[in-house]
Amino acid sequence: MVAGMRLAPFILRIYLKCACMLLGKVSVMLKVGVLISGRGSNLKSLMAACATPGFPAEITCVISNKASAKGLDYARNANIPVHVVPHKDFADRQAFDAAIDAVLEKHGVQLVCLAGFMRLLTPWFAERWRDRLVNIHPSLLPSFPGTDVHQKVLDYGAKVTGCTVHFVRSEMDHGPIILQAAVPVLDGDTEEVLAERVLKAEHKAYPAALRLIAENRVNVLNERVFVTDSTESGEALFNPKA
Ligand code: GRF
């Protein structure tokens, strides 16, 4: 009885400490909404990152303009709220974007990640979410914007390609660059092989960029991104090796 009474304040203190840690963690988690149109492999990589203990972001909703988007299953299986907003149901782009915006607001989203979202967003949306809207593109922007990127890289004979995570502006595949990952283009590459190599890099780059943003280390100044406490070594990537 006496021992139990002595233990009670100790247990209470531990309990309070855990509750405070938990509350502290919840309050600093960045709420992320992910927009997809298809396969969803980048969504999967973001979800995996967010599921890592201590990762400073959580995905509060996934939205697709296509009900058939395969990536929606990843979210459903993880009990992340899923919304299908078919663009064909809306009279114009502005109305569609307003519907997307309403879903994001409903889920308290603070940062929007485009992950293979195949609709051009209106300047209204881009401005409303300025510096809170990011995209991943499978080339080293500003080289090779648009579609059929890997074939264009091969046709041009580029020796290095990669992927870019950037803030979105109203012009397609344009905006302050947050992070890029470079991969070599090899002599025997086909479009598919190169796409796979770049995709592997994307799956590391997007979570890494999300972490930087969620840790409040990304600052936009005059349309250029500066990352605080970056540990980049400055090593060059050579292809072919020199
Ligand atoms: C990725 O290559 C991404 O860079 C581009 O669209 C593709 C989406 O792939 N924006 P997934 O749906 O994430 O697998």
Question: What fraction strand?
Answer: 15-25%
Order of helices and strands: HEHEHEHEHEHEEHEE
Helix content: 25-40%
Poorly predicted regions are none
What's the CATH H-level superfamily name? Formyl transferase, N-terminal domain
The Rg value, from CA coordinates, equals 21 Å
Number of strands: 9
**Would you tell me the overall average pLDDT?**
92
If helices are DSSP runs of H or I spanning 4 or more residues, what is the number of helices? 7
Choose one word for the global shape. Answer: globular
Q: Return the CATH topology.
A: Rossmann fold
Summarize the structure.
This protein is of the alpha/beta class and about 240 residues long. The chain contains seven helices and nine strands.
Structure, explained:
It is built from seven helices and nine strands. With 242 residues, the protein is an alpha/beta fold. It has a single domain (30-227), classed as Formyl transferase, N-terminal domain (Rossmann fold, 3-Layer(aba) Sandwich), CATH 3.40.50. The strands form two sheets. The chain has a seven-stranded mixed beta sheet, with helices on both faces. It has a two-stranded antiparallel sheet with strand order 8-9. The model has no long low-confidence stretch (mean pLDDT 92). The structure holds 5-O-phosphono-beta-D-ribofuranosylamine (GRF). Residues 36, 38-42, 71, 115-116, 136-138, 163, 199, 202 line the site of 5-O-phosphono-beta-D-ribofuranosylamine (GRF).
